[in-house]
Design goal:
Blueprint lengths: L1 E6 L3 H11 L4 E6 L15 E5 H5 L5 H11 L4 E6 L4 H9 L4 E4 L4 H29 L4 H4 L4 H14 L5 E4 L6 H10 L8 E5 L5 H9 L16 H4 L4 E5 L6 H13 L1 E2 L8 E2 L3 E6 L3 H6 L5 H7 L2 E4 L10 H16 L5 E2 L1 H9 L5 H15 L4 E2 L24 H23 L4 H8 L3 H10 L9
Parallel strand pairs: 1-2, 1-3, 3-4, 4-5, 6-11, 6-12, 7-8, 8-11, 13-14
Antiparallel strand pairs: 9-10
Helix pairs in contact: 7-8, 14-16, 18-19
């Protein structure tokens, strides 16, 4: 049975609209203000009927107000009720994504008609979703299952570009899933049966990047004891994914530009050019346009890479996907860790929706893994998560006055170190060198601290 939520600021108007919708075909709930509902129930609402004043509240922006409403009802079609003097704002709401609007006072027949139109549209969208699922196949069904409108637009672009040879530039914060989207593009291209080569440019020492990408001949430099085939050659006829492309040096930028222009590569120390048929996907968590303006990245190379840009949203802008992603990770860790977790407590889910997720999807995966390891029952509870997820939590470092000062101070230091290292390694994707650099310590010191606290860099990749 469909669920309809009616929201108006006037009790008489609220009852009038809700009564017109009461029937055996739908369950109708009503509220005088936009309600706070539990995270696990937010996707159950099919249609929201809201008057314009309640929608806008203190906001002057229709677009922002609708986004706030969709964050609470991610699966709902929105029907706006507007006064006769509010038609311009109502039209703005439809342009911003609302399904339709009606002018007050509204009759039963026209209200039921627009609700039925919304139901039919939902059916059509479900059929389209099914066809899209058929396109993606079973292997990627968890990846493409999203309630986020922004992420749906990302996937639409992926479908458009996948079966071309076009160069793609993926941008977005660390941990948003750029590597996964690159594999998704390759898997749905004509090159799917060929090689996919993943090169993490930021993890390769500057002195070795050129050799890794383009290869070298024996004796071309000190230590070149045999010929090395570069990643571009290995990816011939397939796809090469250049992650963190913004980290490569000026010299490598020049050679990469030449490879993209000429579609051929020359090994270091080599005399002949080797023709290439390779699809290039690059990714960055930096603003390459700004880097070009600052003289840190070649503008002509940027244009070569930015043929088909796709921007991945941070997790804080797609919170409607958190429950689904959490379930996917729990299922995976149940298998890997031999656990039997089947749910997350409502308190934890609410905390997840309030948290800002600076490490994005990767951070969510890491905290779920940690919680699955710690949890002894079938439900992930508050006790298995870091205290910063809970806004009503006590201070992070609880002071135990029953302990002598020395041990209490040491316990606080160790608690701080663990929290700091977890956040640091999350921000760098588990890469030791940049993490040590950000912390202002040596890689050896960082490794000792990680060993002390039982942290493995693989948990943060």
């Amino acid at each position: 049975m469909r669920k309809i939520f009616v929201i108006t600021g006037t009790r008489d108007k609220l009852s009038s609209v809700a009564d017109k919708l009461q029937s055996g075909r739908a369950r109708v709930e009503k509220s005088e203000r936009i309600p706070e509902i539990p995270s696990e129930e937010r996707s159950a609402v099919d249609t929201v009927v809201v008057d314009l004043n309640s929608l806008l509240g203190n906001s002057q922006s229709v677009d922002r107000a609708l986004n706030d409403l969709y964050s609470k009802f991610p699966s709902a079609s929105v029907v706006v009720l507007a006064g006769s003097d509010q038609s311009q704002k109502a039209v703005e709401a439809v342009k911003a994504g609302a399904f339709d609007y009606l002018t007050l006072p509204v009759g039963r027949e026209e209200l039921e008609l627009v609700i039925e139109k919304a139901r039919q549209a939902d059916i059509r969208h479900s059929e389209l979703d099914y066809l899209r699922d058929q396109f993606w196949g079973d292997e990627y069904k968890d990846v493409v299952n999203t309630k986020s409108r922004t992420m749906q637009e990302v996937l639409r672009k992926v479908r458009q570009v996948a079966d071309t040879g076009t160069t793609v530039l993926l941008s977005g914060e660390t941990g948003t899933g750029k590597s996964l989207i690159a594999r998704l593009i390759h898997a749905h291209s004509g090159r799917r049966k060929k090689t996919f080569i993943n090169v993490h440019c930021g993890a390769i020492p500057d002195s070795l990047v050129e050799s890794e990408l383009f290869g070298h001949e024996k004796g071309s430099f000190t230590g070149a004891i045999k010929r090395k085939i570069g990643k571009f050659e290995l990816a011939d006829s397939g796809t090469i994914f250049l992650d963190e492309i913004g980290t490569i040096s000026s010299a490598v930028q020049i050679k990469l530009l030449n490879v993209l222009q000429e579609r051929q590569v020359q090994r270091i120390g080599g005399e002949s050019a080797i023709p290439l048929n390779v699809r290039v996907i690059a990714a960055t968590n930096e603003d390459l346009g700004r880097m070009c303006a600052d003289g840190k990245f070649r503008q002509d190379l940027f244009y070569r890479l930015n043929v088909f840009p796709i921007v991945l949203p941070p997790l804080r802008d797609r919170k409607e996907d958190i429950l689904h992603l959490s379930r996917v990770f729990i299922s995976s860790f149940n298998t890997d860790l031999n656990k039997n977790v089947d749910s997350i407590s409502p308190e934890v889910l609410d905390a997840f929706m309030e948290y800002d997720w600076p490490g994005n999807v990767r951070e969510l995966e890491n905290v779920i893994e940690r919680a699955c390891i710690l949890e002894t029952g079938s439900q992930l509870t508050r006790a298995s998560f870091p205290v910063e997820f809970f806004t009503d939590a006590a201070p992070r470092h609880h002071t135990d006055t029953e302990m002598p000062l020395g041990p209490a101070r040491q316990a606080a230091i160790e608690s701080f170190e663990l929290d700091y290292l977890t956040r640091l390694l999350t921000s760098t994707g588990g890469r030791i060198s940049p993490a040590a650099s950000k912390a202002g310590i040596t890689t050896r010191q960082l490794n000792k601290l990680m060993h002390k606290h039982g942290l493995d860099k693989k948990l943060f990749k």
